Amino acid sequence: MIVALLALHLAAAVVAPSLVRRLGSTAFVPLALVPAGTAIWAATQVGGAGAAQPHAERHVWVPDLGMDLAFRMDTLSWLLTLIVSGVGALVLLYCAHYLREDDGQVGLLAGSLVGFAGAMLGLVTADDLLLLYVFWEITTILSYLLIGYLSTSPASTRAAKQALIVTTAGGLAMLVGIVLVGHAAGTYRISDVLEAPPMSSGAVVGVVLLLCGAVSKSALVPFHFWLPGAMVAPTPISAYLHAAAMVKAGVYLVARLAPAYADLPAWQVTVLVLGGGTMLLGAFRATRQNDLKLLLAYGTVSQLGFLVVLLGWGSPGATLAGLTLVLAHALFKSSLFLTVGTIDHATGTRDIRRLTGVRGRMPVLAVSATLAAMSMAGLPVLLGFVGKEAALGAVLWPPDGWWSLRGATAAAVVLGSVLTMAYSLRFVWGAFTDGARPPVGKPVPPHWHPPTRLLVGVPVVLSVAGLVLGMTSTTLETALAPHTSGVVHVADAHPVHLGLWHGLTLPLGVSALVWLGGLAWWGLQARRPVEVPVPLWPVDLGRTYHQVMRGVDRVALEVTGFMQRGSLPLLLGTILAVLVALPGVTILRGVEWPERVRFADSPAQVATGALVVLAALLATRARRRFRAVFLVGVTGYGTAFLYLLHGAPDLALTQLLVETVTLVVLVLVLRRLSGRFPDDPTVLTRRLRALLGTAVAVVLGSVAVIAAGSRIHEPAGAGLPERAVDYGGGKNIVNVIIVDVRAWDTMGELSVVLAAATGVASLVFLRDEQVERVAQGMRRARDQRQRRVRGLTPAPATAGSPWIARTDVVDPDRRSTILEIVTHLVFHTIMLWSVYLLFAGHNQPGGGFAAGIVAGLALCLRYLAGYGAELRAALPVMPAALLGTGLFIAAGSAILPMLFGSPALRTWIADVPVPLLGEVHVVTSLLFDVGVYLVVLGLMLDILRSLGSGIDEQIRAENAASAETEEATR
């Protein structure tokens, strides 16, 4: 069921942009049904989550890594699922009336928000450490998109980058910790690790690294600065990410590991010191804020430190209090964030010095926010009070005395609670009274428009939920007991239970002192209308972060400037020198050479090799660029012939095609370069280059001979002819390796091709108007072609020849009628040959890669015949469409088998009888090959449009400018 819910979230995230384009912001309502359904399902699992064998799912994913899609719904996962799904559904509903429909990025935000809810669902239910890390990083990426939603705002972009860098750094440390813990335990299954936790030194280091990930994600000191900076995001995003979802990931990880590792000294120092310090720092900074949203942000930092302390304390009572406050915090903080969003939406400001008359205009919202603030402050009879009472009951009797680490942490909890009371009062007073106005002068009245019922109703539902759960907290204790009973590292001095009344106890007396102390703090200091920065921490960590990042940028600039002098020969020489030095030292130290070396199998190989060597030597002597390119091409074609002589026709075909494409690209680029090489190296430089080249040849040749003679195991290719037929259903071993055996590598290479195509286009199309001009030309060519097909308009008359699309845009001096005729005669044949290579490649030389290059070369012929207009007429499609479609098809062929319970990229083989054709051998990996074909074709089209048509445009513009200049000078 969990996998199905994750798939539903993914599908909703994919269709969200299209849905928003059709329905506007109303699309958030049906999107909210996905997390709402998840919350309803989780609510039905309350009994099963606490059972000895809770609901679990397992699907094989990456067996070589021992990585499965393993999920488990125990008590902790159940609670967090309710929080992330329930609050997520309400936030999506809130967005339906909060966001503007004319904002073009609302669709991206909707998809990211639904996807984030699904990622959090996977994170809190994952029963595999590696799978948990995958979802962890997905939340990091999606939070970057959500925080940076206002992409035109420098502050938004800066805050998103800051959050991404900090949380990703913690995630990388966490990944190392996962590997250490999993290696020590012999398994990555979380339930198995916690059942028999490894205690070796490596495992302890791994646990500390895991805590680094939790600390960075939950914004604890010293990484607390990223969360207040992230308040530039829209308020509903802050309400979800920074109250109920993202920041809870670190808290969840601490709660998940505490039953196994809470008694480690390293754990106690990390969790208690950082948690207590974060609680004090965040609470103090919250009492100094005039922006309601920043006040809540620093309050969130403080509360996260409090939660980490409780869940990492190591006793059943503290864990019970921590889980209760996790739920309470999600309710009251999301309610307060959304309240701020409603106030800002209605008045246009969040500054308590400018807000006037809000309570009279929105009385229901004022009552709701007061209830939520009371829960935040720990006042009766709300859930926050119940959790705070339980927390004080668990920490007021530290087992090691008040002069121990736990005693200092307990004192920090009490003082932090005083500050929490103070900033809760500041929030209510600043938002709903006029006492925050400056004593002199009149504040500028903000604009006002009444909020919709939904903008008021969602915060009310959340605050009322905190009230109802506070009055029924004993039922909540029963539901949480299966998890809290498993944390027994520290014994509670007195039993801790949830409830509104336990008599006149010490925790109640301390609570009363906390309330009085918070009221006094607010009355004496926190009511100051102007923020007074007081250094509570010896170092401004936010400023330190920016200084470190500037230092990293500076070091990168200096290193790049030192290593990259703008000289390609120097850079290439450095690379080749390292290539010679490292293996060369090993060879000189002594290696075992093979007893016998066979240099050739036939005279044809010797002759071909001699031709390749001769062409390479002549290329080094060539002073003209085109001659050098031609000679280098000879070496490539000679290598293809060597492949053929060795009995590898598929490799020979691929090498031949790639070499041809390389020649085409180089010739296109040569149009913008001089005919001769600009440098005239000295005799010493030429000798050094010759020496370096010879050294590279000797070292690489020696490495090849030594490696081939040092084999002690059976070659990896042994048995591949049989396995190719049995496993991949094809006789072409190379193609089976690409689309079946190593299909994941091919998937990664397709992504690299997309990045390369984007880079090539960006080097030429530097201006948006150039891209738009090309796109308009393609649309015009496609429309004309469709109209001709329908018979609506006659074919355009041409001045000289009907063989090309538009003769009026082609320079007559550059036309070749013979080339135009031959191109149109052979174009369709070449395209048919590419399709044949695509379908026949599983058994014969060919495949998607070779077929895509052949089709690209056919387009190259069309370009050479008629340039840009002819290319657009041949294929009036944007290259990005082909690239994206190809990658989508390849990814779909990877996911499709998983829907039928098979591993990703699993190949199915069938012999289907077809009338007139007989029995046709069908292999599903052909779909993957089709994706490869489209990606390669898109890359070729992108190269021709950029290095071909794009450079043509530049040449025409320069010629026109030159002609105008000459005309002006006459």
Which outline best applies? elongated
Q: Indicate the structural class.
A: mainly alpha
- Whole-number average pLDDT? 85
Strand order, main sheet: write it out.
Answer: 1-2
The largest sheet is: 2 strands, antiparallel
Instruction: Catalogue the unreliable spans.
Output: 795-800
How much of the sequence lies in strands comes to under 5%
Tell me the number of strands. 4
Tell me the Rg in angstroms. 34 Å
Helix content: over 70%
Number of helices: 36
Distance linking N and C termini: 81 Å
Key attributes of the depicted protein:
single chain, 970 residues, mainly alpha, two-stranded antiparallel sheet, 4 strands
Description of the structure:
- The chain is an all-alpha fold.
- It contains 36 helices and 4 strands.
- The chain starts with a helix and ends with a helix.
Secondary structure layout:
Layout: H1 2-23, H2 28-43, H3 46-49, E1 55-62, E2 67-73, H4 75-98, H5 106-125, H6 129-147, H7 154-185, H8 190-195, H9 201-217, H10 226-229, H11 235-241, H12 248-261, H13 265-286, H14 292-313, H15 316-347, H16 358-361, H17 363-377, H18 383-395, H19 405-432, H20 453-471, H21 473-484, H22 506-526, H23 541-563, H24 568-589, H25 603-621, H26 625-645, H27 649-670, H28 683-709, H29 720-728, H30 733-741, H31 743-764, H32 768-790, H33 817-840, H34 848-874, H35 879-895, E3 909-914, E4 918-923, H36 925-969
Antiparallel strand pairs: 1-2, 3-4
Helix pairs in contact: 1-2, 1-5, 2-4, 2-5, 4-5, 4-11, 4-15, 4-20, 5-6, 6-7, 7-9, 9-12, 9-13, 11-15, 12-14, 13-14, 13-19, 14-15, 14-19, 15-17, 15-18, 15-20, 15-21, 17-19, 17-20, 18-20, 18-22, 19-22, 24-28, 25-26, 26-27, 27-34, 29-30, 30-31, 31-35, 31-36, 33-34, 34-36, 35-36
